[in-house]
Amino acid sequence: MEASLHFRGVRIPSDHSGTSRVAHSPRMRWLSSVASPSRSFHAAVENACKGGGLRAKSDGKRIEAVLGEEEEEKQSHGGDDETAAAAFTCVMKFGGSSLASAERIREIAELIVSFPEETPLVVLSAMGKTTNNLLLAGEKAVSCGVSNASEIEELTFIKQLHLKTAYELGVDPSVISGHLEELEQLLKGIAMMKELTLRTRDYLVSFGECMSTRIVAAYLNKTGVKARQYDAFDMGFITTDDFTNAEILEGTYPSVAKRLNDDWISDPAIPIVTGFLGKGSKSCAVTTLGRGGSDLTATAIGKALGLREVQVWKDVDGVLTCDPSICPNAEPVPYLTFDEAAELAYFGAQVLHPQSMRPARDRRNSC
Predict the structure, then answer these.
(1) What range(s) does the Aspartate/glutamate/uridylate kinase domain occupy (predicted)?
(2) Per the count of CB atoms within 10 A, which of 110, 189, 211, 225 is most buried?
(3) Ramachandran region of residue 68, left (φ > 0), alpha (ψ -120 to 50) or beta?
(4) Chain centroid, CA 131 distance in Å
(5) Nearest to residue 301, comparing CAs of 236, 240, 208?
(6) Average pLDDT over all residues of the chain
(7) Three-class SS of residue 167?
(8) Which of 117-121, 245-249, 266-270 has the lowest mean pLDDT?
(9) End-to-end distance of the chain based on CA atoms, in angstroms?
């Protein structure tokens, strides 16, 4: 199956309210953003095409960009991949701004179930501002002393945010209370050792994704949508031991496919997976994939299962000519080769993680 990369978005009028507005056709789908009431960015990576070009058109309200030629969907994989590909239709990834509050999480939940023809896997980042606050808490713990570790301002913020969100969603706080207690003990340990190593830093920030996925999975189950939470480091994501910037190893793909496929066969449920995280191949410690690594988690799962589509939800309208916060007249870039898009990401354009397109592009060789 030839592969293709799609970036699709739609601008929503500023008075728009609610979550998703959808128009269906055999080739097109427009979705509103849960991250902003006036903007959306739906980036769908469909087994990204090697050597293609990204072309775009806009009528001022919506943007369509296509890399390569779209092929008819066909099942050409054998073994476990065939069953898994038949079970799941796409990966949906949501970042921290889409998880900033209980209201945003409700919108995500509605969005996930708004396409009855889809059976998605969901990849989540930490709730908004959580990763930064975890890092700040760790840095303060180094010098604050053990007796003061429990009073670190950022720890209080994290506790209040997650417990308030769980309460407003009607979710049992026990799904995260153990992690909050463990987080506090970790900060006390850092204060005692007076050191924050890269290995400890990765373990520290992992609490964000571990808690956000548990809250969302619990809320989906509460609303009658069967969901199952996964920590990426326990489901087969094996990485190098380069803490804070680990790389996914090839053994990840068959392991992840088998785990998801086996679980689906025994008890079908929407997987809610922690982005950004993995397990070191030698240390067996928690690793992270670098900032924005949840995008990479999403495309890696897409590659593992041979899926046609990975949707990366952002709060901007695609790859723009400049930073829209600096230049309000920024426009979508009309044409990019695949390598140019990857290079832009590598040198600072924050639409996608620099390495996130590699797994999708690699799928072409095994299709």
Answers:
(1) 89-363
(2) 211
(3) left
(4) 14
(5) 236
(6) 78
(7) helix
(8) 117-121
(9) 5
Here the CATH number for the domain that contains residue 297 is 3.40.1160.10
The residue range of the domain holding 54 is 4-366
What is the pLDDT at residue 18?
A: 37
Task: Round to whole Å and give the CA distance between 23 and 27.
Answer: 11
Strand 238-239 to strand 277-280: parallel, antiparallel, or no bridges (unpaired)? parallel
Whether the per-residue pLDDT at 356 is higher than 90: the answer is no
Supply the DSSP symbol for 329.
T
257/252 Cα distance (integer angstroms): 8
Helix (H, G, I), strand (E, B) or coil at 163: helix
Total domains in the fold of the chain: 1
Distance of CA 181 to the CA centre of its chain: 25
- Provide the 10 A C-beta neighbour count for residue 266: 8
> Is the pTM value of this prediction over 0.90?
no
CA triple 38-112-361, angle to 5 deg: 85
Q: What is the dihedral of CA 308, 312, 318, 319, to 10 degrees?
A: -90
Is residue 22 very low, low, confident or very high in pLDDT (cuts 50, 70, 90)? very low
